[in-house]
Write a structure and sequence with these properties.
By secondary structure, the protein is α+β, with helices and mostly antiparallel strands. The chain has 11 helices and 16 strands.
Length: about 375
């Protein structure tokens, strides 16, 4: 097959002493020649770690041949953006799909590692890199009419890794240089429950039955389907999930980057028709935020604190009245009283069932 699996002992994969580095979409391996062979657990029996013939580390994942995930991977494999580092769309793609005589295939993907977004962030620049990458990723997926449906921290990766529980002093130095040089990238991955649609559908008007939204990590879900709605816009739902993730992670940095407030607000507004698309969110970031910050500000240190999820109005609390007035058109109005009352009703199991049955019966 051209891939050599790592040694597997006691539920751990043990790396060889050497790994070859390659341009994106492959990540950089920080492991010096003195590093010993150490292990990594993949958590389930659908994954294995291997090296290709060029010595590049990959993850092999078993995927059902008839699944939507396989179809998404086939589409990503055809995208030319992954072949050039300057057009890399911040999504971890398959680099090969290996056929088998069974009803599944082995999908090879570059090995990256999961970040700890709050603890990995040291400066304003680090925040902008992460936000830009994730907005780029979602815009790319939606342009190809792929919805992710499971946006959360565990499905984000960064383009370097080390072998072992934590990087040693030598690796730490190389990682810092990797960040300072501008090579750091974040990416979305994991298309277990993703869906793809024809590329001529509208991201503004497309609808799916609301039952399709109750999947994946619900921590960052908006209220689009939680009041018994009949259907929903899955593209707008994705945008709100990413908006809530970014707001809960970076809200405490808004005093230094005030324009994050209108960005997060427009990504998560309960008025779905006014919510940013992924393309609009990326455009706002590139044209309004990225161009407005000086180099001195980019290098300023930040300390992040956890923030409440789905309370994006808190983004504006520490901003000046002048700023809030200037950007008031981006600020979401309060949730209407009747929606708040409905939230109370559906908080009870019987209330949820009754409201859902009524709305589905009347198609409202």
């Amino acid at each position: 097959m051209g891939y050599t699996p790592f040694d597997f002992r006691d539920r751990w994969f043990y790396a060889p002493l050497t790994s070859a580095n390659a341009p994106l979409p492959f990540a950089t391996c920080f492991k010096t020649e003195r590093s010993r062979s150490v292990g990594r657990s993949m958590g389930n029996n659908k994954h294995a770690i291997a090296q290709d013939a060029q010595g590049r580390d990959v993850v092999l994942k078993l995927t059902d041949r008839d699944s939507m995930e396989h179809k998404v991977n086939q589409r990503l494999l055809q995208c030319e953006e992954f072949t050039r580092p300057e057009t890399f769309p911040c999504v971890i793609p398959p680099v090969a799909i290996l056929d088998t005589p069974y009803n599944f295939v082995a999908t090879a993907m570059p090995l990256w590692t999961a970040p700890l977004l709050r603890w990995d962030t040291e400066t304003v620049r680090d925040i902008l890199v992460c936000v830009r990458c994730l907005l780029t990723a979602l815009d790319f997926l939606h342009r190809h009419r792929i919805i992710h449906r499971d946006i959360h921290h565990c499905n984000i990766a960064k383009n370097y890794y080390t072998w072992g529980i934590a990087p040693g002093p030598e690796s730490r130095h190389l990682i810092d240089e990797h960040k300072r040089s501008g090579r750091l990238q974040y990416a979305l991955f994991d298309f277990d429950i993703a869906m793809q649609f024809p590329e001529d559908i509208s991201v503004k008007d497309f609808r799916l039955p609301s039952a399709r939204a109750f999947c994946g990590w619900s921590q960052y879900h908006p209220r689009d389907v939680y009041r018994g709605q009949v259907d929903y816009n899955p593209f707008a739902f994705d945008v709100a999930c990413l908006g809530h993730l970014l707001a809960s992670t970076y809200m405490s940095a808004i005093p230094k980057i005030p324009l994050l407030a209108p960005l997060f607000d427009k990504m998560t507004t309960h008025i779905i028709q006014e919510r940013f698309t992924a393309c609009e969110a990326l455009s706002f970031f590139l044209n309004e935020i990225q161009t407005s910050l000086s180099d001195d500000l980019l290098d300023e240190p930040v300390e992040l604190e956890s923030a409440p999820i789905c309370l994006v109005d808190l983004c504006w609390r520490d901003l000046s009245p002048e700023f809030c007035t200037r950007w008031r058109s981006y600020r979401t109005p309060p949730i209407p009283w009747y929606d708040r009352a409905l939230d109370w009703v559906v908080s009870f199991r019987l209330g949820w069932r009754c409201v859902r049955c009524i709305r589905h019966a009347l198609r409202i």
